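Why do we bother with holo predictions? Because pocket geometry can differ from the apo form. Keep that in mind while you read this record for NAP.
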Amino acid sequence: MAAVKACNVLITGANRGLGLEMVKQLLEVNCPKRNIFAGCRDPIGPKCAELKELAKKHPSIITIVHLDVNDPCSIKESAKTVGSLLGESGLNLLVNNAGVLSPGTMLSTPDEDMHKAFNTNIMGPLIVIKEYLPYLRTAAKACGESGMSCDKAAIVNISAVLGSMTSLPSWYSQFPAFSYNVSKAGLNMITVCAALEFKTDEILCVAIHPGWVSTDMGGEKAPMDSRESVERVLHVLSSLTETQHGGFLDYTGKTLPW
Ligand SMILES: NC(=O)c1ccc[n+]([C@@H]2O[C@H](COP(=O)([O-])OP(=O)(O)OC[C@H]3O[C@@H](n4cnc5c(N)ncnc54)[C@H](OP(=O)(O)O)[C@@H]3O)[C@@H](O)[C@H]2O)c1
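The structure, written out:
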């Protein structure tokens, strides 16, 4: 199976769920120069224990970075720290994975949940993109070859089919998650705008739906586990070129309607 060979990778929300699984699977690929910057909002708390164990075993590959996507100062500080470690090769792959979901319809969702979804699922990825953009540009330039790929310079926004305006009607009665739906639609728009703005930089931008997965967010009834989802997502990422720039794809590589 093709593998993501990006040397320098940043993943937000890397302490559990799909983010942690992505760290694990990137470690399995033989890539001697790999550096994984694993973002976590509470590196000393119990929810980071597994990631910390992993980082202890692979100190030359994993760097745990304090990164709360709800806190612009934390994002800026993280970018300074990571930037100082990246050197001239820059950041090849940015995965905006951290996300929250609160159930509820338009009428039952408290304003507080709307703010939380917007801050975490829209403002967080947006500020992360802006703060890490200089390092993505460095990586794109350092590559020396034309074209786009996740190994060269890419922004991958982990979105959801529940953010698809076209697909939502078939899901909404089963999974009403109004704040999440609206926020992931917003993240999709960020992906499209980023693709337009960073095209000349040759930074690949895509939104990916990882499937319905049995994480804390996806719940026990989900038909797919994290291992399978991430395997398939990484396989899709390894094959992306400028053809998919600005697209919305699922874990099989199929293009989804907005
Ligand atoms: N699971 C699914 O079925 C599914 C389907 C479609 C899309 N997705 C998307 O996939 C991504 C990962 O979801 P998941 O299933 O792995 O969810 P999860 O198991 O609930 O994990 C969410 C991750 O996001 C982190 N996070 C939340 N708020 C954060 C903040 N303010 N700053 C930094 N990190 C924060 C969490 O950290 P803490 O431990 O600190 O809370 C955790 O690491 C999300 O964007 C989600 O929308 C999931």
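The chain has a mean pLDDT of 97.
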